[in-house]
Amino acid sequence: MIENEVVEIDLRKLLQAVLRRWWIILLALLVGAGGAFAVTRFLMTPLYSATIKLYVNNTTESAKSITSSDITASKSLVETYITIIRSDAVLGEVIDRTSANYTVKELDEKLTAGALNSTEVFYMTITTPDPALSAELANAIAETAPIHLAEIVDGSSVKLVDKAKVPDTPSSPSFSKNTAIGALAGVLVSGAVIVMTVVFDVRIMSESDLQAISDMPILGAITDFNAAGKSGYGYEESGGRTKSAQTADLKERVRTAE
After folding, report:
1. From residue 200, how far is each of 26, 193, 195, 203 by CA, in Å?
2. How far is the C-alpha of 226 from the C-alpha of 64, rounded, in Å?
């Protein structure tokens, strides 16, 4: 029970310390948010993403209708098609068709792809600092991929669903997200500093601090009359004068006598 009471008192002291220094936390929040916004605005390069959508066609020309087995086969071919498109042969031709000054490895790092909602439609997204170049590279993939896929995979092909458009706004970085992260970091850091200051403060400030570290009884305490007079807790004497005021008068008389 005693240990639980000590922990409760410590937690209360920590909470009081944080609340007393609320302005530090608010200042840290503003500094963190402002710093993150400034870094995002002036130091981070905006990136633009352009996306194409392709449909995997697994039916033969003689087939009059699409069966469920065709759809299942098309879904299973999505990952295969993506792997082929990301090959050196396809990406190398894409670079040759465009004004991009990238190596095959660099272009592959700027390419993301995946199936849309587990369907036979998949997307391919190119992200670069140049919005026009992103769209140009994505559309070059849409033109080049069907040729290579038809040569490699017999009886299968892809059809273009959506061409890439030149993006108007950057896809990253996000000002709102980074600003929120900066504000949160400021709050956490300032709160941690305040808590650490209280936890590692080994000074004895009150009787409760003594009781927390020792079971020995407190025999007495020395009153700070000056602090008591300022806070209104001095001992009242005749004429409404406090003990601290009388102490000041006594000191003045001693100096005069000297």
Report:
1. 23, 11, 9, 9
2. 101
Q: Domains plus CATH for the chain?
A: 2-43+173-199 (no CATH), 48-162 (3.30.70.1130), 222-258 (no CATH)
User: Does residue 224 come out as left (phi exceeding 0), alpha (psi in the -120 to 50 range) or beta?
Assistant: beta
Sign of the dihedral through C-alpha 19, 21, 24, 28: negative
Task: Give yes or no for a contact between 220 and 198, defined as CB atoms under 8 angstroms apart.
Answer: no
Closest CA to 223 of 231, 211, 215: 231
Tokens of 90: 């396809």
DSSP class of residue 258 equals: -
Q: From the centroid of its chain, how far is CA 203? A: 37
Instruction: Give 139-198 pLDDT, tens digit per residue.
Output: 999 999 988 988 888 776 788 999 999 999 999 999 999 999 999 999 999 999 998 888
Show the tokens assigned to 186.
Answer: 């400021």
**Residues 6+ positions from 129 with CB-CB distance below 8 Å:** 45, 46, 47, 48
Structure tokens at 255: 């100096």
